[in-house]
Amino acid sequence: MRDEGPWFGTSMTVRGECHRSLTYRTYSGLDMRKHQEAASSSPAPLLLAQQLKEEEEEVLMKLLLLLLLQMCSCAESRCFCQVTGDLDDCACDVETIDGFNNEQLFPKLQTLLESDYFRFYKVNLDKPCPFWTSSAHCGLRDCAVKACAPNEVPEGIRSPSHNKYSAETDEQLDECEKTQHLGAVDVSLSAETREALLDWRKHDDEAERFCVTDDEESPDSQYVDLLLNPERFTSYRGPEVWRIWNSIYEENCFKPYTVRRPLVPDSFHSSSGSEARTFYRWLEGQCVEKRAFYRLISGLHASINIHLSARYLLDDSWFQRKWGHNVSEFRTRFDSELTEGEGPKRLRNLYFLFLIELRALAKALPVFQQPSFQLYTGRAEEDRRHKELLLHVAQLARSFPLHFDETSLFAGDEKEAGKLKEDIRLAFLNISRIMDCVGCFKCRLWGKLQTQGLGTALKILFSERQIEALPAAASQRRPSFQLSRQEIVSLLNAFGRISTSVRELKNFRTLLSEER
């Protein structure tokens, strides 16, 4: 309430959740006496007095109704008021993404991810943390991951020769390459030289990657059924979790230590509005590539928090274990008042991440259209149907009308752009290694999968020339661009997580609005 003086009345302001103000005027005692004096000298004093009284009562009723509506819908407004309209650095808006994802893409993508090819993911959960001595692993029941027995995984997936192509095609390609690259030079090459050539090719493949992929070849890796080990709340929290995220943000997002991120938990220091303004001034002053990198990590962080809020352990009794939406947990993570204005910004970054991974899926369509490309599990009819569904999903992704324009990244001086791209690749590679420091096995599983999926998306986006060079028809030459099964599974499942998060926001909007 703000007093503007007796001559102007009292201005009663109800502040909306997006810092919009609605102002209604009532009258102070002096104002009322002046109006009464005016009324007594008018030709119709009783009529004017009655009119003033009715106007005041109407204003008070509107004010009361507004306050009531504010109390009922404030949580929804505080979480979502800024999650609308155009996205920064994009030619797209939140509403277009919501409609496209929720009505067209999400149902088909979920059906695809339930197939055998995409539900089994190979991962090594026993790798030690490469950066610090990690404490004992989480002993909570919900942190555990149940690995598959060998007979539970289709033979076609377990067979290494089917990682990229069918066995017959792979053998033909290998023989062709041996003839062209080895025999054409010197048919008497030693085994050591042959091994060196293979190592060089492996090094070239590694130079294109944005994340660690050694789990695929590790003898300690196991297959995990993602449908039986869903991403959800595990009670894994506290200083160790914040150490993971702080290491990601503070050491790998190109931010100087003198610029503090908003809402950093620190018992010796409280965040302030001036720090938030300083941070965002710094961020806006960065090149578009570094801004995009930060927003991708923030969007991934937001997506994970949405999953944990949407699949929360609501009831843990002798009779049942019930998982579902925890609105209070969602508000804790995204309510603008409870997060000092950060929550809605993070949700907008989720939509930016959606656009990046959607664009990568669309650009991967020529890879999936290669005659030699198969989703091989050993069940021919099932594999054929699932490849058709994958092509349909990728074509649907390509039909999206407002794609992110990746050509705006790494433009300008070729040498400087190349160095910046390599810096970003190494930073993301480092983030993928940090996932081995996560103490909760369930969280580690989904963290590794989602960082690998995003890394694969970045690899696709910045391999345009190699993808364009793919042959339109069957060829005996090895393709200029390849994706391993591990990369394909992580790409689709990671995007499935982002798509699910966007869909869950619709559910949380509804639940928050029903709190009235």
Automatic annotation (TrEMBL):
Keywords: Disulfide bond, Electron transport, Endoplasmic reticulum, FAD, Flavoprotein, Glycoprotein, Membrane, Oxidoreductase, Redox-active center, Signal, Transport
S-S pairs: 138-143, 440-443
Coiled coil: none
Cofactor requirement: FAD
The organism's place on the tree of life at top rank: Eukaryota
Entries under SUPFAM superfamilies matching the protein: ERO1-like
Gene Ontology molecular-function annotations: FAD binding; protein-disulfide reductase activity; thiol oxidase activity
InterPro entries in alphabetical order: Ero1, ERO1-like_sf
Principal localisation: endoplasmic reticulum
GO biological process, one term: protein folding in endoplasmic reticulum
One GO term describing the cellular component: endoplasmic reticulum membrane
Subcellular location as annotated: Endoplasmic reticulum membrane
Binding positions for FAD per the UniProt entry: 232, 234, 245, 298, 301, 333
Residues of the active site: 440, 443
Membrane topology of the entry: Peripheral membrane protein
Family: Belongs to the EROs family.
Name the UniProt record assigns to this protein: ERO1-like protein alpha
